[in-house]
Amino acid sequence: MAQQRDWVPQDVDISVPSMARTYDYILGGGHNFAVDRAVGVQIEQIMPGLRQAARVNRAFLGRAVRFMADQGIRQFLDIGSGIPTVSNVHEVAQSRDPECRIVYVDRDPIAVAHSELMLAGNDRAAIVHADMRDPESILASPEARRLLDFDEPVGLLMLLMLHWVDDESDLPGLLARYGDALAPGSHLAVTHASGDHQGREVTDATEVIRRSRSQDQMNLRTHAEIGALLKGFDLVEPGLVGCGEWRPEGPADISDSPDMNMLVYAAVGVKS
Amino acid sequence: MPNPGHSPDTPSPQPDAERRRRALARKWTYLLSGVVVVPLTAEELDRELGEQLDAVCDGIGAGQYDPKVLERVGDRLCALGYIGEPGLRCTLEVLGKGLLALPEFQPVESTAERIVLGLGALAVGFLASNQRAVIEQQESMQLSLFKAVRDAKSNLRESEARFDEVATSSSSGIMIISLDGQLVRANAAIGDILGYLPAELTGTTLFDLVHPDSADVLRDAMRQLLDGTETRIRQSQRLLRKNGETARISLTTSLLRGTDDEPSHLVIVVEDGTELMLLQGELKRQVLHDVLTGLPNRQYFGSNLEAALRRADPEHGVTLLHLDLDAFGMVCNSLGRQAGDRLLVHVAQCLKVVLSREKAMIARFDGDEFGVLLENSATTPDVATIVADINAELAEPTFVDGHGLAVSVSVGVVHRPSPDLDPTELLRAADLALRRAKTRRGQWELYHPDQDAHDREAQALAVSMPGAWEQGEVVAVYRPVARLADGATAGVEALLRWDHPDLGPLDHDRCAALAEQTGLILPLGEWLLRVSSGQAVWWKNVPLIVGLTAHQAADADLTNRVVRVLKETGLRPGQLTIGMSVQALRVPEAAENFGVLADMGVATMLDGFGGGAADLVLLDELPVRSVRLAPSPFATELAAMVHGSGATILVSGVDTEEQAASWHSAGADLASGDLFGTARLPGDLSF
């Protein structure tokens, strides 16, 4: 059933937390509002090592982008990029090769506005205001058409993103539509939260988010379920593993707490 | 102190010192990278921290200690990324221990002070820089928020321009309505159709523009859209023109959803077709629909029955309900045809409300009969629940010409008939089941194929009661209440009596039960209260007891009625005892009325007290002045139980001296019964 959309844009509502801004708070940043910090504090009380997990995920972003760049990827599509905080895809990629081009995508109007302000003057990076569940409007956006060449391999990043998409949205179908649009040799990097290791704490944290009435709601999946989502891509070694276990290079990449290394699963795959 | 290995005037350290510095820088990198987030690789961070460590050592070790150098290191550290408190703590721990151990700072006695001051300066520089960074980040968020709002507004302007482009060129009227009915936007055509200037329409609500008789139908449609049962509803509607005329138009309502998929607005397209076309449509509709209620009529229902039977889910089947209003004739007789019509519209609305979640076709047959065809699903409640829900909805009194009417329906049910059954036979079966159900009001009866049509009984007595009341057959009578201690009269209880021409006198309990079934009790009960209060005043303020039925007790208008009667008759509240039964008081509204009456100074009585746990709770929680015990073999034990609460104890049915003596010794205070006098007309009593 085709739903009519309201032409009045979604309200900019800072009375409810955004998980992108809460993530920034947990990383130690100041790009957030009181509502975001309130949720962050509650989740940190449930999972005292959360800051470690966030740091480890952020470090994975750097490794994944550098890995892709080393494979020759020069154009990136980062869906669910959130609030640009420290160590962004374009910074990592363009420090490898200033020619790298990056399109960010987020659905949160404040994240989009912030990205636009930050990317002003960078003609090789842009942000699209769109929802992950609408691949066609992302792929056909003026920014994507200007910066990305879909005949060449693309580095598609969906980091701490897919767990915000519920099962009713046909996530496998969505990923297939993205996959279809990408040239062979394109890479996909994914991180996805799971309750496999800290089930009780993760469930409690999910409940905190639910009660916060945030637009972003957590959909936890198991290792097997996340693996099944990635079946259109050949995963590079070591496959789908705890974020801290994916090719760590130093203390920045892992946490002392095994639970925090495993809170989020990570993988990089290649479209054959 | 002399130090042969190192001169403070030499800025570059010796090779060993150089090696120890690199080792400390690596340790710093290693530990710091485990707690902070920076956009640097391990090598980049190592190089960066190596440079900073050199600066630290130079700032401390140079001939002259320079805090500015150390503050700059703190500033630089902060700028690396998200360092924060964990990063600063790690830095001070690593450098605090490490610097003291470096060969270039030996002996420690000569350098410790500079190292301590130096690390302090580093922390100061970090703090200042960190504070600035947080403020900048917060400011950038404010800026982003401002930009997001501005962008949203600019999108809004663009989309409004698009809307205007579409809307102005349309000859149909287009209205955007917020979910609470406020008119958000309207195009010029709607103004033409209704005779308003567009500016005059802003700020009005949709219901200002809809003919009052059509408002309910439109509200229903809006509710269906919000429920998601329909995506678009087209209705023939009546709108009001500015000059007061009615505009018969075709109105299509659909729901707009926001980006979050939540309903946000309604869009209504008003088609100003030719009068002829509308007339045709209306005529066609009227042939198949009941003009009064807007429901499909029997003909339409019958012709759709066959199709519904065929398409029904074989697992759950269909259920056919044939409903008949229990006291409709009475309403029409006593309140007139128009009141009857309004009651029928009310019943139609109630049926729609109760069945709003079901796939149901609701039709008005003839007179006071309705048909419902339910296409059952896994979630459809059972028949008993549905009928109970319908009767519960109808039990809420609706006010028709100032009379609160609470009606009930009797229902004939054919549950899951064979799909092969002929629709005519199916309707007949439902009718037969209804005739059986009618013998007990507010009931339902399943159709049993072996029951024959002859068990239909005469109309219930209650239906003729309003007429009888009008004729003066229903009268107020008074039963003396005596003090058990000395047998003196302590008051009277006002009761109803129906002197039925054929059946003889019907007592209060029978009258109250009959009136309760039809809702007549509300006006009849107020009448009893009024005439008896007047009578009690006439009798020089003899204490008066009036018992209420469940409907009366829960009536939202009860306290107003009592206040009105007291004011009109001059009876003092303390002289009036109002009784509510323990069953009636389980309804919260009744308990609330009880409390309000007590606050007004009216003497409140707990009637039919049986000593159960729930009864004791009521006795404990409500402001109870007196208690009338229910007839019970254990009544004397009950009296003892209540005695301690301080409430006056009443008993009834005391016919002999022995009973009176036994009650008295059990602790009862007041009694009524044959011993003290039967219920009589006021003329037969004197005080």
TrEMBL record, chain A:
GO molecular function: methyltransferase activity
Keyword terms of this UniProt record: Methyltransferase, Transferase
Keyword Methyltransferase belongs to the record: yes
Protein name: SAM-dependent methyltransferase
BP term (GO), one: methylation
SUPFAM superfamilies noted in UniProt: S-adenosyl-L-methionine-dependent methyltransferases
From TrEMBL, chain B:
Keyword Magnesium in record: no
InterPro entries in the cross-refs: Biofilm_reg_signaling, EAL_dom, EAL_sf, GGDEF_dom, Nucleotide_cyclase, PAS, PAS-assoc_C, PAS-like_dom_sf
Residue span, PAC domain: 233-285
PAS domain location: 159-229
Keyword Transmembrane helix: no
Pfam families (UniProt xref): EAL (PF00563), GGDEF (PF00990), PAS_4 (PF08448)
GO molecular function term, any single one: diguanylate cyclase activity
Protein keywords: Nucleotidyltransferase, Transferase
PROSITE patterns for the chain: EAL (PS50883), GGDEF (PS50887), PAC (PS50113), PAS (PS50112)
Designated name of the protein: Diguanylate cyclase
Protein species of origin: Umezawaea endophytica
